[in-house]
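The passage that follows is intended for readers who have already worked through the single-chain material. We present the inputs for a multi-component assembly, then the predicted structure in tokenized form, and finally a short commentary. You are encouraged to pause after the input and sketch how you expect the pieces to fit together before reading on.
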Amino acid sequence: MSEGAGASAIEEIFRLEAGRVLATLIRLLGDFDLAEEAQQEAFATAVEQWPLHGTPANPRAWLISTGRNKAIDRIRRDILFRTKISGELGAVEPNIDAVDAADEEVFGDDRLRLIFTCCHPALNAEAQIALTLREVCGLSTQAVARAFLVSEDTMAQRLVRAKKKIRDAGIPYETPEPSVLEQRIEGVLAVVYGVFTEGYAATVGVRLIDIELCEEAIRLGRLLDTLLPDRAGVMGLLALMLLHDARRASRTSDTGDVVLLESQDRSRWDRREISEGLLLVDRSLSIRGQVSSYAVQAAIAALHVRAEDSSATDWPQIVGLYEVLLRLQPTPVIELNHAVAVSMVDGPARALDLIDSLAARGRVTQYHLLHAARGRLLQKLGRLKEARQAYNAALSTTLLEPERRFLAARIAAIQGICEAPVSG
Amino acid sequence: MNYLLLIYTNEAEFMGLGETALQKLVGEYADFTKSIVQAGNFKAADRLNPVSSASTVRVRNGKTMITDGPFAETREQLGGYYLIDAKNLDEATAIAARIPGARFGSIEVRPVWQMT
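Having made your guess, compare it with the prediction:
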């Protein structure tokens, strides 16, 4: 069919404009569900009309005003219907401003409003991530459900509950007041980072990396960097994600197995993402008075990707950066990573002490990477029996198949050494 | 929108406050109330008697049961409330954060059901 190309061109416009169209419709109509329906109707009308009458000069403005008009028609019908039964005149005329102002700034403001609303701290963390993927990134409910490994019905209900909370609690569709803006940006960054980490190393399932989530997180990071320029946290997070994502192709083997950093094929790293990431780290760290923990993490990632090969890694500087990070954000995961870096400078015995002291405080015993790191250090120290126990503990606390295979292989290798006959 | 701001604090700690500390707190509450009256957010407010004075009523199978309590199993008890009018949740939570009790207790912010 000759319209084939036309249809794919329309699809492309929808994909590009969906986020902006929805964000502006929510402001104009003051309601998520109404705006989503309006957007769908506008897209359906476009599919009918554009192939016949041509694509409008400003598709975005066309989609927004068509969606708005459809919604007003619907509201009028509803009011008429309600007036007939209750005899009351409703005053539910939507709040319509001029929409035709095809001003990038206006659309940008609307997208920010949407992001801040979806990432509002009064919503629970899971709902924030799900809403952001659905409403800001435009992922289908099915795709969001897949990312969370829940059924589509469960995810649909979760999204309905979140939107009901927005409406009932009066969560505003606004960029926060300057007095709380910094804190709220941190909340948004946590959501974007949450999307990325789930994509970077899934917690369950058969695949180590969920590419779609990584890409959505990076896209969100870029969007934030455009909408909230020159912020240390935003640039730091984007840099961190780019520098991690750059190694994606080398992190798993052809069979989906884990490949550790020191064994990764560095020629497969994405040079374009690396140079963009390196630039952003420098810019983030050069902003005076704002040190973002994301930027420090990105600086650590930068030292890894800058090394020609793993033996050239600047471990003393990495240890130093982890110490900075521990002051900013003293979490068990960072303590663990610090200990692993220390093992590369001061040897496995000192690192094992650090990890054992962390484990003794009981904060991370369910964290498989702690046991895996202990196993590795014990193995290096030749304490094979204990190493095997640690790997077994790691195996019992991870649900991710590639990690499980990796740990099982380590255990089997130790078994081989322990059971091998002593040769002369 | 109307929001009910429920002030939960530890009664035992509150009772243990010395006279000067109590006077200071009462003064802070008076200042806070005055400020939201002036800003037009205030609708109503009350301080409650302690939980030890509370009674609980239940009707089961048509029979009314009155008991002593509730017995506070939680660390914090409802000690008072403000009913405010705010433009959205952000304004309501900003006002809640200024309630003196928010510094040592917690404030539950509940939107009032809107009749449609």
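Commentary: The first helix of chain A runs from residue 3 to 29. The first strand of chain A starts at residue 204 and ends at 205. How closely did your sketch match?
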